[in-house]
Amino acid sequence: MEELNRKKLLIVDDSEEIREGLVKFISGIQSIEIAGEAGDGVSALEMADKLKPDFVTLDIKMPGMNGIEVLLEIKRKNPKTIVFMLTNFPLQYYKRACQNAGADYFFDKTNEFEEMVNTIKTLADNPPVNENI
Questions:
Q1: 88: closest CA among 117, 65, 67?
Q2: Dihedral sign, CA of 122, 16, 14, 45?
Q3: From the DSSP assignment, how many helices (H) and strands (E) are in the chain?
């Protein structure tokens, strides 16, 4: 696949272990380029501004600036960026808050990690017509 056709992904999570796991799962997907990683919300916004990623995986609970605040800012600046919320807090309250803030997808870290990776791959290989949460 040509480099120009690859989708850029920014991985944002305060857990280095989660970031490493995502890199491990996603690095083998030819249609995805891991453009960067951030461990906090402020760094995530700086990287999103610089890298202009197609996709962002985003944790909710992070130091400095939470994921919902980051999500609002990413969507304000670039509404076409597809944002995947990945959290240990899969409560309806958070899901609704993320949906209202513009999240495209919402996944539970404990049991939907691989489902999220598969969704990213599917979207990179076949750009979406409709996004769902």
A1: 67
A2: negative
A3: 5, 5
Residue 3 has pLDDT above 80, yes or no: no
At 32 the three-state DSSP class reads: strand
DSSP 53-81: -SEEEE-SS-SSS-HHHHHHHHHHH-TTS
Rg (CA), the chain: 13
Which DSSP letter does residue 82 get?
E
What global pTM score does this model have? Answer: 0.91
Q: Is 29 left (phi over 0), alpha (psi -120 to 50) or beta?
A: beta
Looking at residue 1, what is its pLDDT? 42
